[in-house]
UniProtKB/TrEMBL annotation:
Entry-linked InterPro entries: HGSNAT_cat
Domain of life: Bacteria
Pfam families: HGSNAT_cat
Keyword terms, alphabetized: Membrane, Transmembrane, Transmembrane helix
Name used for this protein in its record: DUF1624 domain-containing protein
Presence of the UniProt keyword Transcription in the record: no
Membrane-spanning intervals of the chain: 36-57, 69-86, 164-184, 205-227
UniProt key word Transmembrane helix: yes
Length: 300
């Protein structure tokens, strides 16, 4: 199953790479079906983390092996943060899937021997807490890992504790129930599947670290053969804006007027391109905030 999740992750990252090099419109990988696809992949990885914790430590925590694995993942997460900060700037990965796996593996140890009902209750609480506990208090960068800030920080991979730790807890609960009812013995009788997928699953961290540079290199080579079309920034902005606006339960007519108004002002002020490239962050740039307020009033 981990091998299939890795394959799915690589396919999503390939779509992100196609967007990055201009073969897909800006925002394609972060909206619609692909956004849901990415969340399903992340949930699957974290669910498997929970299962793995139970299977590895059901007879007692093996601190030596856990510590070694934790150190490898934490070091890889740190390397990803440094590399993306240097390469991406505003969209750098400060708490992505590897950071989440490292911290949530540590937190998950506290639940592997607790009653299943307690773990399920904690999972549900973790899921619903962001709907009720968001506060400007958590907008400070050193709280971003919690996932309770009112302003969602910009990042190309953001997997905070709330609500994502719920997937780990559901994995722990599921593994405990499977042990109780003997499901693992039945699953062990199933065929193992393709060897390449099994190999990738056994070396998932190496696969994660290597696959994206390889994909980026392949897409870059493709640009030397078939150049991507010039981007239509206005159309991409309008599509992304209207999706975000209607997702906030706003009237379609209002969203059309608002997005048209903000697009015109962004183009007039020559800040559309830096906004889309991540050079400026909408929630932190007074020019963008001011024109958004003006267009909100004008679009009523």
């Amino acid at each position: 199953m981990r091998g299939l999740a890795l394959l799915a992750m690589a396919s999503y990252h390939f779509s992100w790479d196609l967007e990055f090099f201009g073969y897909l419109p800006p925002g394609t990988a972060e909206t619609g079906v692909l956004k849901i696809y990415a969340r399903c992949i992340a949930s699957t990885f974290l669910f498997l983390v929970g299962i793995g914790l139970v299977l590895a430590h059901r007879n007692g925590i093996r601190w030596t092996s856990f510590g070694k694995r934790f150190a490898q993942i934490a070091a890889s997460a740190f390397a990803i943060s440094v590399a993306t900060y240097l390469a991406m700037g505003a969209g750098w990965i400060f708490f992505g899937i590897l950071h989440a796996i490292a911290l949530m593996s540590l937190l998950g140890l506290a639940f592997i021997r607790l009653p299943v009902v307690v773990t399920l209750g904690a999972a549900i609480a973790t899921l619903i807490l962001p709907f009720y506990a968001r506060s400007a208090v958590f907008d400070a960068p050193y709280f971003w890992w919690l996932g309770l800030s009112e302003t969602i920080p910009r990042s190309n991979d953001y997997v905070p504790v709330f609500p994502w730790f719920a997937a780990v807890l559901f994995g722990i609960a599921s593994a405990r129930l499977a042990l109780r009812f003997g499901l693992w013995q039945k699953l062990a009788a199933w065929p193992s599947g393709p060897k390449l997928l099994s190999l990738a699953g056994r070396h998932s961290l190496v696969f994660y670290l290597v696959h994206q540079p390889v994909l980026i290199a392949l897409v870059y080579l493709a640009t030397l053969v078939v150049a991507p079309p010039p981007p239509d920034r206005a159309a991409a902005y309008d599509r992304s804006c209207q999706q975000s606006c209607t997702a906030g339960n706003n009237d379609a007519g209002f969203c059309q007027r608002f997005c048209g108004c903000t697009l015109e002002k962004l183009q007039t002020r020559n800040i559309l391109e830096p906004l889309q490239s991540g050079a400026i962050i909408a929630a932190q740039d007074e020019r963008v905030l001011k024109l958004a307020r003006e267009c909100t009033i004008a679009s009523q």
